[in-house]
Protein 1
Amino acid sequence: MSKPVIATASLAGCFGCHMSFLDIDERILPLVELVEFNKSPIDDIKKFSKPVDVGLIEGGCCNSENVHVLRDFRKNCKVLVSVGECAIMGGLPALRNSIPLRECLEEAYLNAPTVDPAERIIPNDEELPIILDKVYPCHEIVKIDHFLPGCPPSADLIWEALNALIEGRPLHLTYDLIKFD
Amino acid sequence: MTEIRFTVDGRPCLAKPGQTIVEAAKANGVYIPVLCHYEGLKPAGSCRICTVRVAGRYMAACTQPVTEGMAVENTAPDLEDMRKSLIEMLFVEGNHFCPACEKSGNCELQALGYRYRMLAPRFPYLWPVRTVDAGTPLVLLDRNRCVQCLRCVRGVRAKDGRKIFASVRRGPRVAIEIDHKLAAKLTEEEARRAMDLCPVGAILRKETGFVRPIGRRKFDHTPIGADVEKGIGR
């Protein structure tokens, strides 16, 4: 029997959730036996090459590329999981949600004291993804099946959730595992 | 007659005349979740987290006195889900960035989120534009985190009895204002009380953030309400 396939992505996140995933420490050995990684920064596979059982999403959506990747994950993953506060509620990047986008860009690229006066320009190359008006949690863009809160979610929570999803059993989330910080 | 007999989810309980359902249930080791309610303050009944059902009717348990023979429903699944939805609404209608909040771990709204296993709210986030008032010496008022429970309005007063916090405007624009002149005279003890009264991180004593490390905070290992239920399983 082939191993369950998992994929991961970091959208508008800080990779802290991926780091927390690696905090499973020596359990990384059984993990290698347990699953096969597909598209993920962990193995640097850039494109989906087969159907994936469990997709783990870190970070919310702050630009068009995030939305594209998230929709790609939804299309290719049977089960999609929002991992961490940014994926669930926008997190730190969403602090800009109460500031108009134009103001944010002008502050960063035109008015900040460290900007070279000769090169004041808001980046507008067509290769760049378009910034969204707000940072959106993943479940406001696509259907999300499970949520793992925390900043970051503890390695124990990620490990428990991954095992439960692979075995097809309900997640056993104790009080100590559910934290919003 | 000095004691009133009533039941919570079928469990026989005793109350003193005049006691509210929340108070009487607590005396009988039954936890009814509250947020705007604070022992010693006049009940406001504004958040409705404590909603119970009696004879098919919904009522705020923090304002409703117990009457003889009352059969209170407290943990019916639909009631619990309604409470959970109220908690979710409070999360989406403010800007609650738990990871960056000084009150995290000691926050009653967050603790209710944990107790009700809120993994993600069912409602879309509203991202309201709210302001911060740091214009008083000891206290910081961050309206992003305010849930309009009015505990500060009811509980924090100057020596002559005047209110230091007040609620202004109505509906979705309702906000808490702080009287700068009166607040400038707050003592250290009064400032701490104001912070402790606030269930969330909207009122903070300045320069005391993150004093208790993760793992030693109020709700890190102990669910809210566990003290009430101690010894009596649900």
Note: Strands of chain B lie at 4-8, 11-15, 51-54, 57-60, 71-73, 132-133, 139-142, 165-168, 175-178, 203-205.
Protein 2
Amino acid sequence: MSRSVWPTCFEKSHPDRRGADIPALDVPVKENLLPAELLDDAPPALPEMSEREVMRHYTGLSRRNHGVDNGFYPLGSCTMKYNPRMNEVVSAWFGGLHPLADARDAQGALRLTYDLERALCEITGMDAVSLQPAAGAHGELTGLMLIRAYHARRGELAKRTKILVPDSAHGTNPASAAMAGFEVVEVPSGADGGVDLDALRAACGEDTAGLMLTNPNTLGLFETNILTIADIVHNAGGFVYYDGANLNAVMGIARPGDMGFDVVHLNLHKTFATPHGGGGPGSGPVGCKARLAEFLPAPVVVKREGGYALDADRPFSIGKVKSFYGNFGVCVRAYAYILSLGGEGLKEASEAAVLNANYIMHKLRGAYKVAADRPCMHEFVLSTENIPGLTANDVAKGLIDRGIHPPTIYFPLIVREAMMVEPTETEPPEVLDAFCDAMVELKALHEANPGALGEFPLTTPVGRPDQTLAARKPKVVG
Amino acid sequence: MRSYVPATREERARMLASMGLTSMEELLRDIPEGVRLRHPLDLPGGLSEKEVLAALKGYADENVTDRPIFRGAGAYRHFIPAIIPALASLGEFLTAYTPYQFEMSQGMLQAIFEYQSLIARLTGMDASNASVYDGATAAAEAMLMCRDSTRRQKLLVSRGLLPDVLAVLRTYAPCAGMELVEVPLAEGLTDLAAVKANAEGAAGLIAASPNCYGLIEDIASLSDAVHACRGLMVAYAEPISLGLLKKPGGLGADIAVGDGQPLGIPLSWGGPYVGFMATKQRLLRSLPGRVVGETADADGNRAYVLTLQAREQHIRREKATSNICSNQSLCAVMAGIYMTAMGPRGLREVAESCLQKAHYAAERIAALPGMKLSYGAPFFMEFVVESDISSGTIDEALRGKGIVGGLSLDDRRVLYCVTEMNTRQEIDALVDALKEVCA
């Protein structure tokens, strides 16, 4: 696609056109049902387009976007695996169910919730799960609220004010801890991105509410000291929180609940193949060990004689974190995925994800600097630091011209010029090979002609946008 | 078993060999023995696509969704034009993630920019973010905006907010160091005198219109009351009603929030929906979450980017305006398609239809012996009926007639909702059934 501007819906508007209708009124029309002062003179200034125009407008927009359906998307930490279409079909079967329907009319939804919660307990090694949080960061906040509620119940909240977060952590971790009312203490990482045990021991104490950890960590390495880490935090009276962003590495291989974690959140839109939708809707279920279960968001689904029901009588619950019961439609998709793969299939998926990541890392270790040169789990971090003048951003823009979505760049913050690569299990070796070839080719292009990558991407509707202008003179509506 | 792993066993073996390895175990050697799972996950074996479809059909068939319904209370059944699911299922939208790589994501960025623009026009505001999880969490985020903008620790919240919105505010407030002052209702409406009495030192007020009883609130007077004490007014709005009613922006609200579910998003047992947040210009930089902005590339081509990222968690970490990262983009796009397809006349017609049908129903129900409307204030498409007959008895009687009645608020009061989806025949059947209950 060459450079082009796609007019907005407002620019395409023509007076008196419309793209949808509703039935004519079949009740007698009454005038002045509402006092005139409540009514606006004119309806909102929405665009006026025919249905065909709306269809082409959005279809045109879709052609200016890249998804997993279009090509490789090795965006680290985001687990951009294939999203099975079957799951879209089954989710639609639940579209007509009102959230306040009588329990007798919602037995299928209640049973599915119950069964999915049990399956997630088994996968994570936790005792109880809530599907209420809407996304990963929302799950983090909810999990931290459980920890907060526990300390409050024991009268220790006033002194347990600190959440420890490694400096390699996802940015949502410290932001969630702050939102949950905790003070954030950053714990430095060792060279391998793992937690520095001495630093952790020094940071832990009577004021520790908990530690947030991603395992494998953001360099894609398993925390070999995980049991020691959990002991240190537990001995100080704190909880260990599992950021489930990287669960795709370990399904059926190791479980957070067996590693000493007390609370987890999962990203169903990452690990369980539900579509990312351009930035949501996701789903961020929270699981916990039995001693935290009474604090989970209410209501919870219970199985009783005669059927499933919602139990809102939970005196120690933190309350609700979202309307109704979570992003249920996303949960349906995830459950269909779990049923398709089964226990063995989930393990196969994780193993293949680890294999794919190692395969790429092995092929590229000569061309780029590898942040930690040892076998990785489902993702790893490369750097352009070894190549004078080449930036991660330039490599990313070059990949775009080759039809490949770039890796996550400039994260984790502990690696300079970082490129975090997560291929997932749903890519065959020829796609991985093509990615490696593109990466090597871009390096060679740069070395032959420093600065050559600066003009990329050339094949997209726009070139590199001016971000400074966007922030200095924000135009956020048209 | 269905597998989405394309590499064959031979290919996998070849990949391992290319690294000088012979087994997967060598790649997993960093995992300490003590934490390895040494038994298979206790889950059923995998199923073929046909079998999964059958299993899920089994769940779906246990739900009953084919009866006329007069229930709303925060989730509303409206007509969804076929182009919405058709366009939302395009793989380029469905299977993309947050548009971090702008050149490769102009389609999603522009779709979100248009959503922001449509929400701003709908609410009469200057700016909007890319969405939050739902209406309740939008209200909670608005609470944080009020706190951070005024540096005050007290917030007034109307009891006219939906119960789940109030519940989420109560969950978030202690974590945010906020004290909630719940403002009672008088005749079903937020008590203006109570707002005035408590506004001093308050960061703001969150009130809904139409409120949880369907009644239209005097947002202008409530705004004046909080502005007199330099607090912010947060209006929780229902989007379809804005096809008719004055916009929060014009009534003095500083922030408008709400749930976009009525704009073309299925009920789906409570989610996924989409929370909208719109503000006046001066609060733009306090908005949480993603915001798409317009700019240009080096050749002057119009381009869209995620902007004002200095507010966000991946830059500011614990000092971010919020922790929100993934939001509800695809639902926001669906709402955008709905507003674009309906246009101004379509949206007004939907609102007018809801208004007329709800009043047709309310008038007939209130004419039944022993039944009356609880409140006299103007309402949009929901209304409360009280009677001497217990709400449970009414609900069971309607159920017996194959009708999903209103929501029981307590033993004597029922909240009905009527939308453009309810035919006159359905409404008449509801009234006839209620007549039998009264007799």
Note: The first strand of chain B starts at residue 127 and ends at 128.
Protein 3
Amino acid sequence: MLSLILPTFNEAESLPELLEEIETALHGTPFEVIIVDDDSPDRTWELAETLSENRPYVRVLRRMGRRGLSSAVVEGFSAAQGDVLAVMDSDGQHDPALLPRLYAAIQSGADIAIGSRYVSGGSVEGWAHARHFASFVATACAWLVCTNRVRDPMSGYFAVSRPVFADIRDKLRPRGFKILLEILGTMPRRSRVQEIPLIFRLRTRGSSKLNACVQTQFFRQMLSLLWRRSAWHIVFVCFSAVLCVLLGIRAWNLHLLYLDAGVRQQVRQSLESITEGKGWLMSDVALRHVRRDGFRFLYRRHGRGEDHTQCYDFFYSDGLQTCT
Amino acid sequence: MDYRRVRSYALVAFGLQCYASVLAWVQSIGGVLTDEAKYLLNIPYPQPPLVRWVLHLSDGWVAQEWVWRILFATLLVHAAWFVWDAARTLPRRLRLFLCAGWLFAASTVLWGGAIIMSPLTAIQGLLFVWLFFRPEWHQKPLFAFFLGTLWLVSLYTAYQAVLYMPLVFLLLFFHRRSLVDVVVYGCIPIGLVFLYALTNPLILASFVNAGTENTDIPLWWWFYFLLRTLFTGGSIVLSVLGLAGMVRHRHWGFLGSLFLVGFFIFISFRDYYDILFLPLFVGGSILLLQRWQTLPLVPSYAVLVSVTAMTVWLLPPVLSPSTARMVFQRLEETSLSGEILIQGSFGHQWQYESAWPVRKYTPEFLDSAATIICLNPCDQIPNSWRQVPGLSVEVWMSR
């Protein structure tokens, strides 16, 4: 059975027509619809309860004191009884005609089936260029945290098999709008993902909920997923970066030695002369900085106990001096 | 846990520790060798700084040499527990044989207790081999991090750890880990150690020297030396079993590392690198015995023991105190204090054994020196100096 979750917030205008489209699309398929409403000011929850009186397949969850699309979807999935769990927007932008294909994909063995705007056959209607660009940037960022390669990880229209959801349920941190991203970031690598072309329709009723707060929530979600998925990578890379910087500075100070044969010859001859004159071992000398007019080195007399260390500058014109 | 089982493990651990102590004691008879002194004094070549920095922290201890010999021998000997675990799918008698192979291979007996990096690198190689035989860990989230950290530590212990690179990359590619894992945990450590090498020109110079110093040795001797280290590495029996296992299973990680180790020994001509073969031979032997499930144990033990005994007899460890130790023990009996001048080419053990600063001999330094050691005959020593009798080298002290 397909359990379809409809998260709603001020979608009273769209809901009746949407339910009719769903009934038409899922004719012949066992299904239930769970409307999860975040206590909408326009009383969407009350309308939903009225509509459910003549539609036994409709259940209503009214959430009071809790907000957020992702958490609404997770609550809906948890209350669902079907073996295929699906979610779509309630604002009319998602075509219910895609639902049978999503259901069939899960029944055929996919772990997750996504209505994708960015596969061949999919598209977005009526967005401004700025919105397209913002979506592209967000999608590209989302790829960093997905364990599986997906063209549209930001889609709000997808179906997942119940066992898969049950496996990852406790690892999900549902916040913000992008529950699919959270699921994709938590699913095991090499899960079976199927993307089905979706034509993302223009919103005809109500108003968009995409604002600066939502965008901030998205980036916080990204960072949280990145940390949870790749904490050890980040620790290792940060440590390596620090080491790389420290060693890089020291190596850069000697770069003339490696790049210029003339400088190399000059430094070698000068060091041999200095160590010969002082009776030092070459292994007690550590080059620190090579310049065209000379070089700096540390003399460290190795022995048991504390080693005597002295810094010297050698100039080809002026000879050996202690470091200033 | 069962008391009898705990007691048996404790007895085995005690026995292993006694064996490690014996190995350390044998190595200590000859005193500190020049390669060992480099690590004990944190002399910045030819190896990266990690272990030698740790050793150097203790160079004020009177018992520094003895403590580290015991520790190095302990690590090498107790690594047999990893061999035991890696071979856990085999019958008990075969596991015991493999552990005996690790403990009593000629390379272990010759280098256990030596304060050099090749036994440590061999232990790290054994850890990579052991991880290969733990496939249930390969998909765990921390596995790649642990492997990458071990790899980084290995490379910063000694450059020769890079010889186990095929094994490390095979572990990273196992179960199709992501490209990010391979780059972060496989390639970044190699890049970091290469960057470290660039900060110390002495290291690169020592590589060039090591690669060119043996060019006058005849070619047949090079092959003979490689073959000899191949056999002493696993005391023939493990060498043969290991090679057969690697080839039969076409295990590219082991074979790749075997090739690199062989090539490295071929060009470097150092006895103590034969131990780098040992973890690969153990791994290959496990692969072979997983298929065979049997082995003629009596002849195998006989070959193991006799090859080790013959190798120790033909290439014995140093069993008399070094000249440096003898000289400085004698000098410490006097009330002497002051700079030591050494004439001729000398190793770092002279710096280690001396309680006083050491410099190369030049007549201009005579005024500030208290002792002259002539490894080549000295001339023009003034009458104000007297020779110390009874030493194998010329030693002069100021009157």
Note: DSSP finds ten helices and 13 strands in chain A.
